[in-house]
Amino acid sequence: MDYERPQFFRVMQYADAAERDVVDMVSGNPDWEPPGALRDGLIEYADSDPAGFQYPASEGLLELREEIAARRNVSVEQVLITNGAGEANHLAMAEGLTRGTGDEVILTDPVYPYYAGRTNLLGGRARYVAVDDDGQLDSAAVREAASDETALIVVNSPNNPTGAVYPEETVRELVAIAEEYDALLVSDEVYDHFDYSGTFTSALAVDSDHRIVTNAFSKSLAITGFRVGYAIVPEPLMDGFRTRHMLTNVTSSRPAQYAVWRALRETPPDYYAENREMLRERIGAFTDALDAAGAEYTSPEGSFYVMARFPGFSGTMENVERLIDEAGVAGMPGAAFGESRADWFRFALVTPRAADAAERLADYFE
Amino acid sequence: MDYERPQFFRVMQYADAAERDVVDMVSGNPDWEPPGALRDGLIEYADSDPAGFQYPASEGLLELREEIAARRNVSVEQVLITNGAGEANHLAMAEGLTRGTGDEVILTDPVYPYYAGRTNLLGGRARYVAVDDDGQLDSAAVREAASDETALIVVNSPNNPTGAVYPEETVRELVAIAEEYDALLVSDEVYDHFDYSGTFTSALAVDSDHRIVTNAFSKSLAITGFRVGYAIVPEPLMDGFRTRHMLTNVTSSRPAQYAVWRALRETPPDYYAENREMLRERIGAFTDALDAAGAEYTSPEGSFYVMARFPGFSGTMENVERLIDEAGVAGMPGAAFGESRADWFRFALVTPRAADAAERLADYFE
Question: Cα dist. B195→A310, B170, B346, B349 in Å?
């Protein structure tokens, strides 16, 4: 599997170019409204004096870092604002691979393809640990895969693409394994606001100099294009992180940081709860229609993806293009996430037409 | 000299914490107004539908790429939008050092410290070529320094910190040397709108698969905090660039890209000309006052920095702090830019109080 270039943009372009109506379930782009305070923040920012348009601190706007620190119950010195979770994960993986403690990166199978692509880019060697049918990661299998060569363990909970939410004991074990082998656990928690199970546990629950938590407002505030993310970095690692961030991006975009800060301060908990509930219902309608189609699928505990498979129709890029052209539904090929899901497709529940899409699939496969 | 962490933010923090009034001439943060259309663009963007807040293409907003391609007279396929010139330079240097054609990076002395820091970060070996007293780079000296080990030649014209603008023959020679040794010339042209000499030549004037031009709107639109830059990349190198950009940042911040696009389309040439003229006058007033102080200095042909030195007072960080505390003027230590300018200070002309600052310096050193 070639992870060098994640395939999301390729599938989106194919779907956009299709001549028929296509329900877009490709990317993790929320289709719901961002908070009103976010729009207000941009408008307010537009009126800044010239100094307000210049470099913020390299670590990010102090008021935004303070807001995040308070919410995550960490010191502000541990918070670095990044260009989305993408940069946060990039920095974390680059730091892990240059500490001189090995070049092996433990990833799950299926995997979010950017982790695999970054492993290649940064000269690491990927070692995959397969998850079970429910998407759960067996920490004993991770321990077995770990060795003195392990530089990084990169996980994502709630998970894309499986929808699994790892229980607290898994999170604790992963931190313990990272400590045992002088590796870094990178815990990407970008779907933390979309936990339907009530069991989500942040890796911040375990205090350790061997775990880095990454996150972003892309999903929780419905702004994947703003590129405002962050890393929570233990103090001994922060100096390296700051330097790498500065030499990579200097700093992150200020209008977006300001708008996110306003949105965080002024958006009530209802905003998050209502979107979560809306997604829960959407997932229910989609999977009900898949049931009717006789498809096999996973019901996510978190995030907003459903993996499904259809007899005799494997999850290749070619078949993704057939579903776009012949069924009018665009998903991602399971093969893009690893060998273990090569039979599957991933559908992102980011459209009010999710149930329609499932009916189209049912019609197509009946 | 430790370039691992550029010192700009450190000096700015020191100046901010000073108890007295300090004229800030540290960073390259414009103090003048961004174009009105930029503010309008942000306000218009704030009213987008939810889809407008999501990921733009990884390469950047198509309309912005088209606008840049038309202005630079290149095909849109050669334009990649980055998180400021910082990311563009980072990508270019990372690509140059992973092509397998050597690990040596030719830099000028004095050097913009981020180039030196990135060389270290990316595992390259810096080889410095000293410029002459006017800041001009002798291409014969570059050729002498070049070898089969040369991966990159990184230059900046109009130059920070010297203010030199390289003539066309230098630019042509640098491209020729890069071709000869299968290296990449990275030509950072972020000050291209601030050429007082009328002699600025972009490396785009020389068609070659061995030259990458980087730029940003940080200075020309007075928005260092927006982080909108770009790289013009020859077709054979673009695939690697796109992948690295995607795996580093996914894409750049969309509100800022949109506002820049609006500003480019609607801002008349007068905007740029007036700011250039304002800076030219400011530089004149500052250097006149330095004359009165008996200081030695360079008159920039481009960019907006003046290097100056004062007898018996070398350009160390310690002396920068003394000037802040005792003279009320904050500049950058020349030593931050290389050994050859260790006696000098760099003053950024980004304050209407530049002439006052020069008078404070004159009083201090008299």
Answer: 63, 16, 18, 14
CA distance B82 to B94: 14
Query: Which element (helix H / strand E) includes A160?
Result: none
Encode burial over B54-79: b for 16+ CB neighbours within 10 A, e otherwise: bbbebbbbeebbebbbeebebeeebb
Q: Which residue of A lies nearest to B121 if distances are taken between CA atoms? A: A244
What interface predicted TM-score (ipTM) does this complex get? Answer: 0.96
Q: Distance, in angstroms, between B216 CA and closest chain A CA? A: 12
CB contact under 8 A, A249 and B90: yes
Q: What is the pTM of this model?
A: 0.96
Is A55 within 8 Å of B224 when comparing Cβ atoms?
Answer: yes
Closest residue, chain A, to B224 (C-alpha): A54
CA distance B19 to B199: 43
A46/B42 touch (CB, cutoff 8 Å), yes or no: yes
* Cα Rg of chain B (Å, integer): 20
| B145: its two tokens | 């320094």
The model's pLDDT over B96-146, given as tens digits with 9 standing for 90+, comes to: 999 989 999 999 999 999 999 999 999 999 999 999 999 999 999 999 999
User: Who's near B103: CB < 8 A, 6+ residues apart?
Assistant: B97, B123, B124, B125, B149, B151
Please state whether beta strands A125-130 and A305-309 pair in parallel, antiparallel, or not at all (unpaired). Answer: unpaired
State both tokens at A323.
């579903």
User: B44 CA to chain A: closest CA distance, Å?
Assistant: 9
Q: In this model, does residue B2 exceed pLDDT 80?
A: no
List the single range of A105-109, B271-275, B357-361 with lowest mean pLDDT. B357-361
| Interchain contact, A84 vs B249, CB within 8 Å | yes
Q: Check residues B28 and B263 and name the one with the higher pLDDT.
A: B263
Which of B97, B253, B258 is the best mutation test for A, with the most CBs of A within 10 A? B253
Give the pair of three-digit tokens for residue A190. 């970008």
Per CB-CB distance under 8 Å, the chain B contacts of A43 are 42-43, 46
Question: Is B1 a residue whose pLDDT tops 50?
Answer: no
Crossing angle for the helix pair B113-121 and A235-249, nearest 10 degrees? 120
Q: Cα angle at B36 between B32 and B40, to 5 degrees?
A: 135
- How many interchain CB pairs under 8 A, A with B? 188
Beta carbons of B253 and A227 less than 8 Å apart: yes
Q: Give the tens place of pLDDT for each residue, A108-121.
A: 999 999 999 999 99
Shortest alpha-carbon distance between residue B292 and chain A (Å): 31
Q: What is the pLDDT of residue A291?
A: 87
Q: Which of B56, B84, B254 sits opposite A250 (nearest CB)?
A: B84
Q: Which of A97, A227, A239, A261 to mutate to test the interface with B (most CBs of B within 10 A)?
A: A227
Tell me the nearest-neighbour CA distance from B366 into chain A, angstroms: 33
DSSP secondary structure, A327-353, as one string: ISEE-EEGGGG-GGGTT-EEEE--STT
For residue A332, the model assigns a pLDDT of 95
- Cβ neighbours of residue B187 closer than 8 Å, sequence gap 6 or more: B155, B156, B157, B171, B174, B202, B203, B211, B212, B213, B214
Is A43's CB within 8 Å of B42's CB?
Answer: yes
Residue with tokens 């993790």: A28
Tokens matching residue B17: 């914490």
pLDDT at B4: 60
